[in-house]
Backbone:
């Protein structure tokens, strides 16, 4: 049974940092590219960052220079380090494995 569980969201002041985690099970994690998406209220879901099975990374323009995606295949985990958070980063952040599997998401709020 496939499971994807995100954690690490929370409330931070603008300029603060958070690290979101995504732990997966039930499929060959090391063979999958992994992605972080986000969806803010009233907006469409958008891609934030991705990492290939080989470790190549890519970022949305809004995330470049502030966010870092990484993976630990031994732990079946992918991470999103978010620095310099802005109010417009407030959203539910979800993890996707390949084109198939989604987690439920974790809320990130940057607000004073």
Residues:
């Amino acid at each position: 049974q496939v499971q994807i569980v995100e954690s690490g969201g929370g409330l931070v002041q603008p300029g603060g940092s958070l690290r979101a985690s995504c732990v997966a099970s039930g499929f060959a994690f090391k063979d999958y590219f992994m992605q972080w998406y986000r969806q803010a209220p009233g907006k469409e879901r958008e891609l934030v960052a991705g990492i290939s099975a080989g470790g190549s990374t890519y970022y949305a323009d809004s995330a470049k220079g502030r966010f870092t995606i990484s993976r630990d295949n031994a732990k079946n985990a992918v991470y999103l380090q978010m620095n310099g958070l802005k109010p417009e980063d407030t959203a539910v952040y979800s993890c996707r494995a390949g084109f198939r599997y989604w987690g439920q998401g974790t809320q990130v709020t940057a607000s004073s």
Remarks:
- The mean pLDDT is 97.
- The CA atoms of residues 31 and 53 lie 5 Å apart.
- The radius of gyration is 13 Å.
